[in-house]
Design a protein that fits this description.
Layout lengths: L4 H4 L3 H22 L1 H9 L21 H6 L13 E7 L7 E6 H18 L6 E4 L7 H12 L3 E3 L6 H11 L3 E4 L1 H14 L10 E5 L5 H11 L2 E8 L4 E7 L6 E3 L4 E6 L13 E7 L10 E7 L1 E2 L11 E2 L4 E2 L4 E3 L2 E3 L1 H9 L4 E12 L2 E10 L1 H6 L6 H17 L4 E5 L14 E3 L5
Parallel strand pairs: 3-4, 3-5, 5-6, 6-7, 18-21, 19-20
Antiparallel strand pairs: 1-2, 7-8, 8-9, 9-14, 10-11, 11-12, 12-15, 13-14, 16-17, 18-19
Helix pairs in contact: 2-3, 5-6, 7-8, 8-9, 10-12
The structure holds adenosine-5'-diphosphate (ADP) and zinc ion.
Length: about 425
């Protein structure tokens, strides 16, 4: 089933013409409403009329997460606050989160894109779907929620946590679809097994999995343990949220909602655009957004684009599974974490030396984060023997990390000089989650 035949199956010429028209409009809109973009265009001697076709996009400047952070909180917002009806936030590298405001039209388009995804996954009015992405500032929960209601299925806003209750509801309500991170799906499977709920007792048929990288092996394992078919859904809050792209029944790449988000692939080092088919960093320009449109936003996600009609009948360009990132962002339990955030915390605690190591693992299908930090030599000799001092310091670091990262980390205090020094580029992250 296809939610919007007209847009999802457009001919390439029609799509390019529509994208060109919309690109001109969005450039004109930000030129007049966002001083940051006006300045950037002026620096390049550009006026909106210079942008007429989609090919003209290469004349435009890139936007980065740093630009959003530097213009915190709403410097890149184009619509006045009176038009904004919702605000989400995603983690920034250090300090400020990225704030994204949505107008009523933005939410409607997001809901439309989410409906395209769910329809492609086979979710419709006869389904009951639980949304186990986090509700709140994160775009996953509410984004998926609106889509499920829109396609007429019954939404169960389970959110994360409460996993036993959720497992019981899956069985008792006969829930047929679930939207969550792939790692949460595995955690849920495990919880169910512990509770003695077998896959024959549940009716799950469809899983909408995203917000973090996952592999074909994980797909097989989840499908096998929960007895459903798992589909990829991709998105990011700076561009919209979940449903920037989604898999169809053919599961050969994820179709991008390209009438709303224009994708490019660039070389992350030279910033040169790469021909379709080549692997590089994914860049998006929003073509219809009002709240916070972005021009050539660098996602840092590494993928490639596949053109050509898919067997499902959709013509929308597909992206391959995300292979990695061109920056050091980690995704731990669906939350974006940058090593620089840990560094900022460590630097702010006088008893701790600026040496640290992040160790990420997956235990019982849940991501764990351990942060090793080195105690300063002077503190190590003077206060270290005082009863409770060590434990207090450890707790203090844990508390500060939690408030900055929004996820819990286990802190291990290390003696001065004991965290391994590497030759050359320091290795500050040990990711033991083997994404095989
Ligand atoms: P969201 O709220 O959609 O997770 P964030 O801005 O917090 O948005 O995080 C977006 C990032 O999450 C993406 O840039 C990408 O790195 C990762 N991501 C989201 N969906 C997927 C997916 N299906 N596969 C791989 N990575 C994903
Ligand atoms: Zn398809």
């Amino acid at each position: 089933m296809i939610w919007n035949q007209n847009k999802e199956c457009m001919s390439r010429d029609e799509m390019s013409a529509l994208q060109g028209k919309r690109l001109h409009k969005v450039v004109e809109y930000v030129y007049h409403n966002v001083p940051f973009y006006r300045k950037k265009l002026q620096e390049r001697d550009l006026i909106p009329d210079d942008i007429q076709t989609i090919e003209d996009i290469t004349k435009l400047p890139y936007t980065t997460k740093k630009d959003l952070r530097d213009n915190y909180p709403t410097g890149l917002q184009a619509a006045p606050m009176s038009q904004i009806i919702r605000v989400h936030a995603s983690s920034g590298t250090t300090g400020n989160p990225t704030i994204v405001g949505y107008t009523r039209k933005d939410i409607a388009i997001w809901t439309e894109c989410m409906s395209r995804s769910l329809t492609a996954f086979g979710i419709g009015r006869n389904d009951i779907m639980s949304v186990a992405y986090g509700y709140g500032l994160f775009t996953g929960g509410l984004g998926a929620h609106n889509g499920v209601e829109n396609v007429g299925a019954a939404v169960v806003p389970a959110s994360t946590g409460n996993t036993e209750k959720h497992a019981k509801l899956l069985r008792d309500l006969g829930i047929t679809g679930i939207a969550c991170t792939p790692s949460y799906a595995l955690y849920l499977a495990e919880t169910m097994e512990k509770m003695g709920i077998t896959k024959d007792q549940i009716k799950l048929r469809v899983g909408a999995f995203g917000a973090e990288p996952w592999t074909e092996n994980m797909r097989k394992e989840i499908q096998d343990r929960l007895g459903l078919k798992g589909y990829n859904i991709y998105g990011l809050s700076e561009v919209m949220g979940p449903s920037v792209s989604y898999e169809c029944q053919c599961q050969n790449g994820s179709h991008i909602c390209e009438d709303h988000f224009f994708p490019e692939i660039i070389n992350p080092v030279t910033l040169e655009p790469l021909p379709r088919g080549q692997k590089g960093e994914l860049v998006f320009t929003t073509l219809t957004k009002e709240g916070m449109p972005v021009l050539r936003y660098r996602t840092r996600d590494i993928t490639s684009l596949m053109e050509g009609e898919c067997n499902c009948g959709r013509t929308a360009v597909r992206m391959t599974a995300i292979e990695g990132r061109s920056d050091d962002m980690l995704i731990i339990r669906g939350i974006n974490v940058f090593p620089s955030q840990v560094e900022a915390v460590v630097l702010a605690i006088p008893e701790i030396a600026p040496r640290y190591m992040l160790i990420i693992d997956r235990v019982n299908n849940l991501d764990t984060l351990t942060v090793q930090v080195e105690v300063r030599p002077d503190y190590f000799t003077s206060d270290f023997d005082t009863p409770g001092a060590v434990e207090n310091l450890r707790k203090k670091v844990e508390f500060k990390l939690r408030s900055v990262l929004s996820i819990g980390a286990k802190v291990e205090l290390k003696a001065p000089g004991s965290i391994e020094r590497s030759q050359g580029k320091s290795v500050r992250v040990l990711d033991k989650r083997v994404l095989k």
